[in-house]
Amino acid sequence: MSAFDPYKVLGVAKAATPEQIKKAYRKLAKAHHPDRGGDEARFKEIGRAHDVLSDPEKRSLFDRFGPMSLESGFDPAMASGFGGRGRGAPRGGFQGAGQGVDFDMEDLLGSLFGGGGPRGFGGAPPRGPAGVRAELGLDLRTSVEGGVRTLTVGPQSMQVRIPPGVRDGETLRLRGQGARLGGAPGSDLHLTLRVAQHPVFRRDGEDLHVTVPVTVGEAVGGAMVDVPTLEGKVRVRVPPGSASGRTLRVRGRGVGRRGQGQGDLYVHVRVDLPVSVDPELLQRLDEAYGSDVRSGLMQAAAA
After folding, report:
1. How many CA atoms lie within 13 A of 122 on its CB side?
2. What local confidence, expressed as pLDDT, does residue 286 receive?
3. Which domains does the chain have, with CATH numbers?
4. Are 172 and 160 in contact (CB under 8 A)?
5. CA distance 75 to 83
6. How many other CB atoms are found less than 10 A from the CB of residue 256?
7. How confident is the model at residue 80 (pLDDT cuts 50, 70, 90)?
8. Rounded-to-integer distance, Cα 263 and Cα 251, Å
9. Who's near 55: CB < 8 A, 6+ residues apart?
10. HEC string of the chain?
11. Which of 23, 71, 9, 40 has its CA nearest to residue 261?
């Protein structure tokens, strides 16, 4: 599989202006929108490409480091140091593949052992060019809607603003905030977000999924039922003859993320059976099928 290249996805040159990028994105997003019969995976890829190229910092990092800059937890300062870019004379190095590759031994040891060489293992967080690293737990609602949360590391604490639409495992880079949590002066704080599972909703990209129970009567005859969303409940029509596992789509009720539009809510129908039923009613219900529901299965198995 080829590496993700936002320029190729949008079909623009690396020297493209923000206006040219926006124009290309709008054209492709309109042509490939799922509501117009387009491919959903392609539509999301276009949104991801626009998310990178519309953000000056993300675009600059991609231009400099390529696809690796889009990986979760990517550290540009460390990449610069290990790749020999933007640094002075190295204190250690090696030759490989016909070219010199410089690295800072203290940075390398710091990234492996938590700062200060091997004796720092399990102690202070990484410092220097790699900055300070920490994790922050979030509930699903905060990851979707954004908000302010308190990060506490030892005796130190700070307020962190969470942008809407962040994902589990995503890393926020807070410039110059590492010193507040014991890092070197001017160091950055690299904050990895951990989103807890929700008891009702499951997130997949920018889409949300929810399982909704319905009665046998609602499944057979169809009905309008209440479905929860993160913004309140909505009324959704369950078509007649809906079996367990049927999926209904509610557009625009998923996660909103800058540059990628609004995701959808997928409602998975689950038919709940009553605990007890009158025997005569069960007999009439069986007669309503008109034929053996397993006949097709048996014929297919015997073929």
Report:
1. 1
2. 87
3. 131-196 (2.60.260.20), 201-302 (2.60.260.20)
4. yes
5. 12
6. 15
7. low
8. 7
9. 259
10. CCCCCHHHHHCCCCCCCHHHHHHHHHHHHHHHCHHHCCCHHHHHHHHHHHHHHCCHHHHHHHHHHHHHHHCCCCCHHHHHHHHCCCCCCCCEEEEECCEEEEECHHHHHHHHHCCCCHHHCCCCCCCHHHCEEEEEEECHHHHHHCEEEEEEECCEEEEEEECCCCCCCCEEEECCCHHHHCCCCCCCEEEEEEECCCCCEEEECCEEEEEEEECHHHHHHCEEEEEEECCEEEEEEECCCCCCCCEEEECCCCCEECCCEECCEEEEEEECCCCCCCHHHHHHHHHCCCCCCCHHHHHHHHC
11. 40
CA distances from 275 to 185, 216, 217, 282, 286 (A): 66, 12, 14, 12, 17
CA gap 91, 266 in Å, rounded: 55
Residues 6+ apart with CB under 8 A from 239: 222, 246
Distance linking the first and last C-alpha atoms of the chain: 39
Cα–Cα distances in angstroms (integers) from residue 57 to residues 53, 173, 176, in the given order: 9, 11, 16
For residues 249 and 209, the answer to whether their CB atoms sit within 8 Å is no
In angstroms, what CA-CA distances link 90 with 65, 80, 84, 128?
A: 20, 12, 8, 15
pTM above 0.70, yes or no: no
**∠137-140-141 over CA atoms, to 5°?**
115
For the segment 170-215, what is each residue's pLDDT rounded down to a tens digit? 999 998 888 877 778 888 889 999 999 999 999 998 999 999 999 9
Among all chains, which residue has been given the structure tokens 């993300």?
Answer: 58
